[in-house]
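REQUEST ID: PR-0412
SUBMITTED BY: lab tech R.K.
PRIORITY: routine
TASK: structure prediction, single protein chain
INPUT:
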Amino acid sequence: MNSLIEQAALRLAQLKEAGATMPVDARVDRPSDIEPPALPEKSGAQSQSVEIDLDALAAAGIVSPNAPRSQIADQFRVIKRPLISNAAGKGASVVVNGNLIMVTSALPGEGKSFTAINLAMSIATELDLTVLLVDADVGRPSVMNLLGLPAGPGLLDLVVDGSRELSEMLLKTNIKKLTILPSGTAHPRATELLASEAMTRLISDMATRYADRIIIFDSPPLLLTTESRVLASHMGQIVMVVQAEKTRQSAVLQALATIERCPVKLMLLNQARTQVSSGYEDGYGYGYGYGYRNQTA
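STATUS: complete
OUTPUT:
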């Protein structure tokens, strides 16, 4: 017995012999129970998934779901609370872009990336919030290395190529409410890219796409490059990390002057020798002290 296709071909030959003409795009109809292959969606980019070694994080002194009652976890529970309140519009005054938080420092080596990661990890434990951690230190990215993840395309690639989609650059992690955006491919005009209209649109998109998302930017040191000053102009809140017994007061004041227009600044004193009496094994914690300053622009 001839197949459906063979029958159709035979019928087509008979029509031609009878003098019938066929349009150039004529084709054999498919049986109704056979669907044509689905075409790929134009905007079907999917986020990649990565696995963070949670035990290694805990061993490195980073907040981890595997060690919820560590000393540093308790410290960051205190640190994150005013930031979350501002992001939700529950602070002393409404903060524009309150869900955009930049973590920076005056100089390199003060622990800003370590702080940014811990803050993101701590907020990711909240029941009603999700976190996007952006490695915006485009000159010396370190977030991926600290988390034990490979570098890849990210922030700068999105700014350079407007046809790329944010979703294809995001990395979903095994921490349910934490997503990461790497710094991306290095570019000689990184400062200009961060100051461009494309960057402004990208940040606006990130800030408004999900109402429950807090976005944390690990930025370059304020006195080392100009990228962080440009980035600060988009932020609602800035966390400035100061290393105890190392950073000079003059450097701190100079750094603060570069971000004076940001409405909210949080100061974190890193590695302060604060005696802990909570029963933890370590006699001294990382010593994150904090001062909260709410300043209207």
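NOTES: The longest helix spans residues 71-87.
REVIEWED BY: pending
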